[in-house]
Amino acid sequence: MIASSHVTPPPEPILIVRLGSMGDVIHTLPAVQALRNAFTEAAVGWLVEQRWAELLCAPGAPMRGPRSPLRPLVDWVHTVDLRGWRKSLSTLLTIQRIARVWNDVRSTRYDMAIDLQGAIRSAILARLSGAGTVWGPAQPWESPASMWYTRVAITRGAHVIEQNLSIAEAVTQTRLRMPRVQFPRHRATEDRIDCMLTEIGVHAFAVLNPGAGWGAKRWPAERFGSVATSLARDGVRSIINCAPGEEQLARETQAASAGAATLLETSITELIALMRRAKLFIGGDTGPLHLAAALRVPVVAIFGPTDPARNGPYGTRSIVLRNPASRTSHTRRSEPDEGLLEISVENVVSAARQLLHDSAERAHG
Predict the structure, then answer these.
(1) Do the beta carbons of residue 31 and residue 167 sit within 8 Å?
(2) How far apart are CA 317 and CA 280, in angstroms?
């Protein structure tokens, strides 16, 4: 997209509301980066679920104040723990925590809030922020959310990243270039990952991610293990990424790899550092895939019931594998999608080798 020379006067300051999940926060980053680039002098805050805050701010870094490599995109990070709060909503401690967060948000005196989630809860939180103007999509994910907006944007584009950017364009009233996003860079963590890779003797490696949000999106773990075995013959080791609750899948993948894959359990900050060093990512529609794409790591995407046109890898070299038998659905079934099971180990290994070959050609080109 080509930027025009005219940008509306910036509001001061701006609150972004995108609570989760990991992939959805990553899909929002380009729109926020574009807003930052358009409104260079505006302060920007972000209301996000606590467990995803490391995508915006490195652990131990201040959540507000001058931006730095530890918090490169936003001036304030406000965290909520909606899942945890629901479990103890009537306790004094929870009430105090909610009040503390909300006092922090309202005391910032946001001029504008932009709901980039389109859910009822995110729209309500945007309105309760006290901002005079609340933007949201004209057709939000949950249609009643629009009752809490004062301004709406008609979204464009097939991919959710493009749709989010179109909301930023409505806010700025200008065409915006798709920017490259910045993630926090924590020097000690970067050094720790380097030491960890040296200790296990891994240099050229692929990240395998057997987990996904629900069973219908999960390609079998033993097949990931077989992919690792094949890649090892080409001199590429595999690192298995494991999110909380996916430990069994990761262990099954490791066992099936016959020693070709190593399991590493990482924090989000560690995963960012690890992904920066990867030659390739292989996995389904899940947060780490979108992190790899945002970091311009080549991606083999194994898709089943979700639509890669909307949720696929964006902005990086990629090969998307999806069988025609797969039908788009967000029903959270526990069993793998039938079409997903039609994708073979050979299909994935062939795609991986093609991307690795292309990378080698580029490196020597």
Answers:
(1) yes
(2) 10
Higher per-residue confidence, 88 vs 103: 103
Token pair, residue 315, equals 């902005």
pLDDT at site 4: 43
167-222 confidence digits (pLDDT tens): 999 999 999 999 999 999 999 999 999 999 999 999 899 999 999 989 999 999 99
Q: Model's pTM, two decimal places?
A: 0.94
pLDDT of residue 2: 39
> What is the share, in percent, of the chain residues with pLDDT greater than 70?
97
Q: Is the dihedral of CA 231, 236, 240, 241 positive or negative?
A: negative
CA-to-CA distance for 124 and 219, rounded, in angstroms? Answer: 37
Q: For 165, what's the count of Cα atoms within 13 Å in the CB-facing half-sphere?
A: 23
Using an 8 Å Cβ cutoff, are 7 and 173 in contact?
A: yes
The DSSP code sequence of 297-350 is --EEEEESSS-HHHHS--SS-EEEEE-TT--------SSPPHHHHTS-HHHHHH
The one-letter amino acid code at 131 reads A
Residue pair 46/125 in contact by the 8 Å Cβ criterion: no
Alpha carbons within 13 angstroms on the beta-carbon side of residue 344 total 3
Q: Please report the domains of the chain, with CATH numbers, ordered by start residue.
A: 14-172 (3.40.50.2000), 187-364 (3.40.50.2000)
